[in-house]
Amino acid sequence: MAIRLGDEAPDFTAATTEGTIKFHEWIGDGWAILFSHPADYTPVCTTELGTVAKLKPEFDRRNVKVVGLSVDPLDSHQGWIADINETQDTSVNFPIIADADRVVADLYDMIHPNALNNLTVRSVFVIGPDKRVKLILTYPASTGRNFDEILRIIDSLQLTSEYKVATPANWQDGDDCIVVPALSDEEATAKFPKGFTRIKPYLRVTPQPNR
Ligand code: BEZ
For domain 13-145, which architecture applies? Predict the structure, then answer.
């Protein structure tokens, strides 16, 4: 069955470029991103993995572990990493799962045969410290992902898991937030010492509470 938001992320044990991992144990108390790419030695994937390597300090700062995956074997990943490092001027600094038997790809429904036969599409799963799935993205092979957007998503997920706010369209860290409709005006007054603006009864805006 397809994985949905709020579901427990399926656990697994897998070989990676940084040794075998037990997924839930590897996640530990923090956040995680599991993302698949279609195949090693392909151009868009090369740019994506190089980009993730360069952004690793940003993921670390947010307490997010990142792990890649494709259905290529370990020796293919190892050879390709050298190419990524060379061409993208970086050093791959996160594990990549070698899912040649497609166990993890099947668990996470990453193979979409009507889009791409036998290969994983560009899936992204963000998993919280409670091991529940917080976000799912699916991109086709032709479209490389915007990993700055994935960092923005993490900022929103982490903020909204701590405070009774939601984030509006195109929100960036530091922008005003939406007071969740479930809070009454009285509760919002108590919860948000910086105050809030009541544009409509259902549309109330407050400065980002942790800034
Ligand atoms: C790419 O990474 O460029 C790619 C991979 C699989 C199919 C098409 C493009």
Answer: 3-Layer(aba) Sandwich (3.40)
